[in-house]
Amino acid sequence: MMNLDSKVPKGNLSEKWTNHKFNMKLVNPANKRKYDVIVVGTGLAGAGAAATLGELGYKVKAFTYHDSSRRAHSIAAQGGINAAKDYQNDGDSVYRLFYDTIKGGDFRSREANTFRLAEVSNNIIDQCVAQGVPFAREYGGTLANRSFGGAQVSRTFYARGETGQQLLLGAYSSLNRQIKLGNVEMYHRREMLDLVIVDGKAKGITVRNLITGEVESYAAQAVVLATGGYSNVFFLSTSAMMSNATAAWRAHKKGAAFANPCFTQIHPTCLPQHGEGQSKLVLMSESLRNDGRIWVPNIVGEKRPVNEIPESDRDYYLERRYPSFGNLAPRDISSRSAKYACDEGKGVNGGRSVYLDFADAIKRIGEPAVREKYGNLFEMYENITAENPYKVPMQIYPAPHYTMGGLWVDYNLMSSIPGLFVAGEANFSDHGANRLGASALMQGLADGYFVIPYTVGNYFGSEKPEKVDVKGTEFNAAKESVNESSNKLLSINGKQTVDDIHRKLGDLLIDKVGMSRDEAGLKEVITKISDLRDEFWNDVKVVGKSEDINLNLERAGRVADFLELGELMAVDALNRDESCGAHFREEHQTSEGEAIRNDDEFAYVAAWEFEKAGKWKLHKENLEFESVELATRSYK
Ligand SMILES: Cc1cc2nc3c(=O)[nH]c(=O)nc-3n(C[C@H](O)[C@H](O)[C@H](O)COP(=O)(O)OP(=O)(O)OC[C@H]3O[C@@H](n4cnc5c(N)ncnc54)[C@H](O)[C@@H]3O)c2cc1C
User: Fold this and answer.
1) pTM of the full structure
2) Cα 446 to Cα 20, 23, 99, 212, distances in angstroms
3) CATH architecture of 268-399
4) How many CB atoms lie within 10 A of CB 34?
5) What is the distance in A from the centroid of ligand 1 to the CA of 116?
6) Whether 38 contacts 225, CB under 8 Å
7) Which of 119, 236, 271, 383 has the least CB density, counted as fewest CB within 10 Å?
8) Pocket flag, ligand 1, residue 284 (CB < 6 Å)
9) For residue 285, is pLDDT > 90?
């Protein structure tokens, strides 16, 4: 029987975390070295967790499929990280950051987790500054801030357009210190392919050594997954090409509930798709919406060169429809608005892109000031498109970017499998149905530096999990099943490449489980994905052998998992018969096209238990709100 106790502590919202930390069982320093923890993933969440657990004295084994922990997808984050420091004196507070985040997620996240995120946000900035992260500063030396979507204060800390890289360098240095001290053993080029459970508790993992092909087992008394999100299920997304859901999915198949899989974020400011053969989409940071104005021509079929379209023939649709937040309306709303404008035929040249225009900002603050703020993003844009955004507006269009859904976790970030913790984008924890900009880095580092180290310690202190032998039956069975699955993939010898099938899956998902969804489309796509899965297992061609480097085999395993996850996304979207955040059901909208939530029936986390491919059991965790009123989200 699946246990979905959220373990939210009693008491006032603002005191829950402090009291919980006080009530936790501690492990005496001399005993900490007797406990082993496996951390899978060394992005911001994983590197933060591994370094901090190591610093505390636990014995950590950290795994990544990359050749260096520095290559995690976190490195791509551009715009910034939120914190409630209120350096701008503009009315920010921990409560306001909490409120913006829970409202931004359309009241579909757990109140206590979201509050804790806001509460520890300030510690993150202090920690990163102490590590030497070069955040942008004002002339007088204080840390600078800018604004991101869904907020009316400036609380985003940044390092030009490479915040993720700088934060990851900080976490990576801390991790390396622990590797040098012998507290963390680092395993590169290892892909986790199974979770090992002994007596109902997570006790280890099975990995494939991506260089030799050997399948290896590792044991520990707790396992932390910090393996990132699943946007690449859409084939085209802004995620790093290697990002995938396999670790989380294999844990799901071993009993970890998967929560709210249909909550996926399509980011409004990406470069439009250019052709059929494209394999990646590129994000232009949301920070650009601080100064860039978004518009489309008023006239369907407008053919004039952009700089010749007069003001009177332009529709600044976000400023018009959402005057309070304007171009900084949240991502779900901005993306849908762009889609609708293009559906009406008002996209650039009638196609699927809208303008992001800096002409006014350049007039107002001058080109050097714009260059200072966004220079590297403008350069990147020009390198890719061969157009100079200082002279002509950028063209942007929404693209899959982030996944709010993920493995279900309780307040301690422990999954429904005892001893299995999940951190960062891989869990479903804090963002509800829509994530606000600059909040993913905050969550990854909050989980890694400030939550997991406490809650894993509490698990050890209270449960005292036994050590297990890596040669035990469960480990051997997991190894066998990984080998079997590789051999099966290699033996199909069909006609389609792994990418052919992945692209088909992506097309189905973006069409029917993308920016808007409806019942008929979801029912249709569930059948089509199930058929596509059969097509994959009968007609895919995976070349090479398993005892060697084999990128084709790696990708095949990941796409096999995406084919199951994609179906669950559609099943979840069909079940959630309301519109909320990024989950927009066409059937539930106002006459102005705004989402209509159904709090009476759907104020719950949908946590799915795996029964077999294509069959899941739904469990509901009701969301209780003690501090906020479930208002209709309005950015007007
Ligand atoms: C282009 C872009 C820009 C962004 N900009 C911002 C921003 O400005 N602000 C913000 O807040 N957020 C931003 N985000 C979102 C943010 O970057 C991510 O949500 C966050 O970095 C995820 O961190 P993570 O540690 O959870 O996972 P990741 O950084 O994705 O790390 C996952 C780790 O898990 C490992 N791994 C995965 N599976 C396995 C496996 N099976 N076996 C072994 N290892 C495995 C990988 O090797 C990697 O080390 C951006 C995202 C993108 C795509």
Assistant:
1) 0.96
2) 16, 20, 17, 35
3) Alpha-Beta Complex (3.90)
4) 14
5) 21
6) no
7) 383
8) no
9) no
